[in-house]
């Protein structure tokens, strides 16, 4: 017993996990990008505000050019109204610092802040300063007075802006998580709908493995999976037809071979081994039966191969040459008045050997149903889209009660001494070419006309 491998992670689950990972990664990348961009924007906004304070100081000192550095800083602090979270400091040439703005003990009590100002007092610049868990942006503008240097210092607390950004990121994370849940739920539903044809395909394949070929997929939609459904159903049709052909061949072979085998056994049982004449007669009869069985097996094999893709091999065939070759071979079948009406011209995409086989079968069928000297005509004609061959005779024709089933296997007339497979082979060859074989409507006793009508090009 063949055991199927245990499916630990279905395709649907893998798709959902892959979608969740991709969406989660995209949301995370967007959140990180937003955090980086907003953090830079906060710093740029703070730096712009500090630069604005420095610009206003320069403008004020231009009007107070005669004043000393400390006086200029005192005057500027007196006229300045700091923003929220902003402190404007003056570090005079002598004495301690003064400031205007909200008091911030993190800076007032930090020796590191004073050291930072002293470090930038000569050259100036912007620095980020951390104190007691808070982050500040500090700008220092040197103010020169002779060989002494004062400084205008502006500090801005960026912690509040960062907290707002953090709150925004938390909100984004919650919304992103909710969106991820919605995406996963939607993708689960959508994956189930999209993969439903594959589920049906799996279930149908299991039913087939259990021995049922009657199951077919319900074709829905207009996508690649729909094409897969159609292809799978077509494959099932071919499999069912192949199995039906196989069963029919076995049934036919068993039915038809049983009689000659019974005949062989019966004659062998009653044969007198000591009688040379009886032995010779039995030998001739057995060889004849063996020849009949060989012919039956050959014809059944042809019908069994008719469903195979390589049953015919299409190639350009010259129609006049094909017709002349068939007519030449037919004259050796029997002593009849053989005539031709071959008007087909040009080339057609056919299997010349199979078409010849079909026409010879029709000619042999006509020869068996006519007498010496009767007229049999081999004809052909063509059009831009099709080519037609026919064989007509002046025999008794096909009985009306057999016209509907004449192409079925083992259907014979009372005067037919064959197996009734010849016309079935002709029909199989016609169908393999995408054409058909037709029996003309003719009055009883006026002969029969069989037409082999085939497409001219590979439009099959």
Automatic annotation (TrEMBL):
The keyword Electron transport does not apply. The chain crosses the membrane at residues 169-192. It holds the Pfam family HisKA. It is found in: Cell membrane; Membrane. GO terms for molecular function: phosphorelay sensor kinase activity. It is a multi-pass membrane protein. GO terms for cellular component: plasma membrane. Residues 192-244 form the HAMP domain. Keywords: Kinase, Membrane, Phosphoprotein, Transferase, Transmembrane, Transmembrane helix, Two-component regulatory system. Residues 252-458 form the Histidine kinase domain. The keyword Membrane applies. InterPro entries: HAMP_dom, HATPase_C_sf, HATPase_dom, His_kinase_dom, HisK_dim/P_dom, HisK_dim/P_sf, Sig_transdc_His_kin-like_C, TCS_sensor_his_kinase. It catalyses: ATP + protein L-histidine = ADP + protein N-phospho-L-histidine. Its EC number is 2.7.13.3. PANTHER family: SENSOR HISTIDINE KINASE CUSS, SENSOR HISTIDINE KINASE YKOH. This is histidine kinase. It comes from Aeromicrobium phoceense.
């Amino acid at each position: 017993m063949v055991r199927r491998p245990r499916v630990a992670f279905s395709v649907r689950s893998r798709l959902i996990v892959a979608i969740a990972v991709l969406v989660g990664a995209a949301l995370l990348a967007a959140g990180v990008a937003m955090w980086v961009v907003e953090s830079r924007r906060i710093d740029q906004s703070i730096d712009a505000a500090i630069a604005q304070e420095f610009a206003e100081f320069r403008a004020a000192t231009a009007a107070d050019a005669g004043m000393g550095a400390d006086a200029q800083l005192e005057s500027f602090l007196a006229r300045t109204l700091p923003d929220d979270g902003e402190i404007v400091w003056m570090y005079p040439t002598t004495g301690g610092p003064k400031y205007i703005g909200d008091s911030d003990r993190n800076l007032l009590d930090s020796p590191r802040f004073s050291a930072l100002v002293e470090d930038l007092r000569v050259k100036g610049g912007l620095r980020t300063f951390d104190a007691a868990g808070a982050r500040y942006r500090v700008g220092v503008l040197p103010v020169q007075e002779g060989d002494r240097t004062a400084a205008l210092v502006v500090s801005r607390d960026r912690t509040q802006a960062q907290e707002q950004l953090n709150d925004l990121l938390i909100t984004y994370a919650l919304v992103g998580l909710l969106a991820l849940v919605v995406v996963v739920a939607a993708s689960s539903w959508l994956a189930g709908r999209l993969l439903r044809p594959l589920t049906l395909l799996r279930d149908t394949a299991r039913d087939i493995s259990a021995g049922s070929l009657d199951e077919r997929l319900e074709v829905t939609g207009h996508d690649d999976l729909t094409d897969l459904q159609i292809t799978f159903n077509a494959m099932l049709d071919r499999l069912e037809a192949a199995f039906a052909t196989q069963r029919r061949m076995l049934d036919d072979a068993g039915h038809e071979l049983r009689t000659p085998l019974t005949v062989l056994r019966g004659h062998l049982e009653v044969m007198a081994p000591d009688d040379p004449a009886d032995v010779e007669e039995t030998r001739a009869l057995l060889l004849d039966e063996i020849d009949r069985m060989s012919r039956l097996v050959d014809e059944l094999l042809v019908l069994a191969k008719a469903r195979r893709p390589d049953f015919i091999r299409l190639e350009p065939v010259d129609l006049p040459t094909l017709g002349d070759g068939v007519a030449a071979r037919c004259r050796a079948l029997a002593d009849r008045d053989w005539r031709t009406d071959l008007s087909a011209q040009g080339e057609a995409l056919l299997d010349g050997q199979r078409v010849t086989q079909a026409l010879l079968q029709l000619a042999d069928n006509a020869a068996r149903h006519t007498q010496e000297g009767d007229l049999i005509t081999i004809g052909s004609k063509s059009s831009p889209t099709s080519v037609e061959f026919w064989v007509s005779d002046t025999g008794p024709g096909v009985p009306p009660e057999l016209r509907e089933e004449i192409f079925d296997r083992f259907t014979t007339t009372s005067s037919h001494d064959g197996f009734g497979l010849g016309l079935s082979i002709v029909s199989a060859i016609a169908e393999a070419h995408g054409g058909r074989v037709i029996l003309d409507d003719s009055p009883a006793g006026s002969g029969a006309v069989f037409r082999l009508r085939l497409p001219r090009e590979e439009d099959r």
